Amino acid sequence: MTKEDKISIGLLGAGTVGSGVLELLQKNAASIAQKVGKQIQVTRIFVRDLEKYAHLAESYALTTDIDDIVNDPQIDIVVELMGGEEPAKTLMLYALAHKKHVVTANKDVVAKYGRELFDAAEANQVDFLFEASVGGGIPIIRPLKQCLAANEIQEVMGIVNGTTNYMLTRMSQQGMDFADALAEAQAKGYAEADPTADVGGLDAARKIAILSSLAFNSRMPLDKVHVEGIEKISKHDIEYAREFGYCIKLLAIAKREGENGINARVHPVFLPVSHPLAAVNDVFNAIFVRGDAIGEAMFYGRGAGKLPTASAVCADIIDVARDIVHKGASRILCTCFEETKICPIEKVANPYYIRLLVADQPGVLSAIAAAFGAQQVSLRTVVQKQRVGEYAELVLITYAVPDSHMRMAMQTLAVLPAVAEVSNIIRVEDPHFS
Amino acid sequence: MTKEDKISIGLLGAGTVGSGVLELLQKNAASIAQKVGKQIQVTRIFVRDLEKYAHLAESYALTTDIDDIVNDPQIDIVVELMGGEEPAKTLMLYALAHKKHVVTANKDVVAKYGRELFDAAEANQVDFLFEASVGGGIPIIRPLKQCLAANEIQEVMGIVNGTTNYMLTRMSQQGMDFADALAEAQAKGYAEADPTADVGGLDAARKIAILSSLAFNSRMPLDKVHVEGIEKISKHDIEYAREFGYCIKLLAIAKREGENGINARVHPVFLPVSHPLAAVNDVFNAIFVRGDAIGEAMFYGRGAGKLPTASAVCADIIDVARDIVHKGASRILCTCFEETKICPIEKVANPYYIRLLVADQPGVLSAIAAAFGAQQVSLRTVVQKQRVGEYAELVLITYAVPDSHMRMAMQTLAVLPAVAEVSNIIRVEDPHFS
């Protein structure tokens, strides 16, 4: 076989997703070849430990030297599935510099070094694709770049972390505590031994940085994404949410905030149970998009896992292959041609849910209402819930108020003698009260 | 301006969707130009009545002569938005023969004459795109052709007709009758004066013929799609569905039926309320896809309307424009490279819901059970509901049984003296009982 007949891939990393890609390219080889017009094959695999992947040595040329891959003239596409920032980033830049098309599932690198990688791809006139970096198998990068390209996007809002969605679903459906839900997620392999990046929201932050950059054609640096995790969510919050017609989801949100620019954030929200995202449970992910022409759209599926992620990686491979066959590479590269102002979280307005422990005595409610009123925070609902020891639990829902006002109100509240504890404070994402 | 600087469009038809396309291309002209690398403009519009569209004559060259468009060397793309089979089909073939790229929203023509149009596009090395023909603004054609291209698809199942979904939602949420729901849909402009194509399922059939052809890479002729409408659904059926944990939706379904081939059909179903499609209400559409790698995925949004449909049409225009800029046209044309057998409805197995009026006397139930048993139809649930005059209403749910057996059982049932009426029979689409 000559190069003309086949398209060859150098794979970096043969872990879970890598083995999924090998499996899928083999299983559906015939139909993929017909769609592309050429056969697609992995020829070389870069691994860090030859011993560990000895079982692959029969079918593929294993190497620990990246030069074996980037200097192989037969190889057209480098597929990076090692994860983590380094050496993945350096290897991808090296491959691009050698005029290899690059496909990756690496959200860490795309979120942080997207510009550098796009520039390198453009300079070398090759493709750089990363569909699997957000939402696992769910098509969302390509829809944003192509299918919704005629829209001015107003917001992108997603459940993009399966671990936390699984935990919140279990807490909601089984009345579980946070700790039990986490233990179960770990036992099922949905959460890592160190769950910080998932539970704390960083994983979702990387994904919304990528989605925001695509949706608004303006780069969203990861360190500008406001991040809160689900550590403080208790089953009481979930029960109260339900009483008010909401569920609790960890959402990654990027929105145009008028003249203030674009804001991106990750935090738990009270979401109306009628919202399409409210029905997204367990490890499923979904991304909700609002555009000026399309209106509301949602993309739903498995946000992680060997084969779903491989599905997205292979879609990118097929697209690159079609570009190679039709000699149309680097058709759609960086779309961040704008530099829109970034809106700090302080200026973002939302209604809030607040759960307090207060002294159970006359006058307390009016003191609390006064503290909110002083910061122009209007209360939509105030409900006294159970007694906890000598205190009364109070649940409030406010009308929309900028984050900065709410912070001031909470500071005032914290020093009120009657307030024993601010148990939790969660934003409400409700189109009817925004 | 020379042709090098701009990409010019000849528009066929300036009705609702056409005016949406004009509006959208103007509103978002700047960002579209940046995404494509060239400006995109409509220059000529083919209309059948110059008087009616006189208001457009200031900005566009109106014509009633198609030759003015196909012979204009400045025009790169012909966008057909006239609807209906003729003259749309002839005009598209004529434009393709003149080496114009063609974008259309016309499900009638794509469902019936897809092969002819693809062949013409291929012969002339131009693009033929039709994202708006299914699901309005929802990206589904491109996801099937690109994002899920590495998958062997097992099923595509969708709510693809907004009129009937609106009616069923109203019947379900407000307890409305079919006639009242239809009248309301007509009053709101969701249903046409002659609602036959929507209510009877033909509109959905056209869409599933297109989706099936794409999903299974094998052409599904429209006349092989089994079609039933929602005319016979009563509010009683909806109430009973709810009692059993189901809702009623009009689904368009295409599935691999093992060695029997591929079956495509449109009919109302009992769908578990926990299914992602069950939450798709009002005029919204959604398409649910199951593939061997991605698992379950769903695409949700507005299935009709001026701007949502224009969003999909403009996405196609942008894709063609990118092909023109990068000289990579006809990258993805016909993908029906297989000829998979078509499975007739008779061989498709489903559980069924059956509502009967029977004589309210001893022995009736055993006679009915025997009639089913003779056709190897097992009953999962038998419930006696209200009395209707001298009769009792009986509701049955069967286990999965091939359509042909169910037909035989119903024939036997119809001649049983104790059975006064078979009020309705509806398939159950439940992964747990298939």
Could you list some keywords that capture this structure?
6-stranded parallel beta sheet, Alpha-Beta Plaits, alpha/beta, homodimer, 14 helices, Dihydrodipicolinate Reductase, domain 2, Rossmann fold, 434 residues
Description of the structure:
- Two copies of one chain form a homodimer.
- Chain A is of the alpha/beta class and about 425 residues long.
- Helix content of chain A is about 35%, strand content about 25%.
- In chain A, the strands form three sheets. In chain A, strands 7, 8, 9, 10, 11, 12, 14, 15, 16 and 18 form a ten-stranded mixed beta sheet that branches. The first copy, chain A, has a six-stranded parallel beta sheet with strand order 3-2-1-4-5-6, sandwiched between helices. Chain A has a two-stranded antiparallel ribbon with strand order 13-17.
- In chain A, strand 5 (about 100-105), helix 5 (about 105-125) and strand 6 form a beta-alpha-beta unit.
- The longest helix of chain A is centred in the last third of the chain and has 20 residues, at about 305-325.
- The first copy, chain A, is elongated and about 85 Å long.
- In chain A, about 50% of the residues are buried.
- Chains A and B meet through helix 1, helix 2, helix 6, strand 12 and helix 12 of A and helix 1, helix 2, helix 6, strand 12 and helix 12 of B.
- Strand 12 (about 295-300) of chain A pairs antiparallel with strand 12 (about 295-300) of chain B.
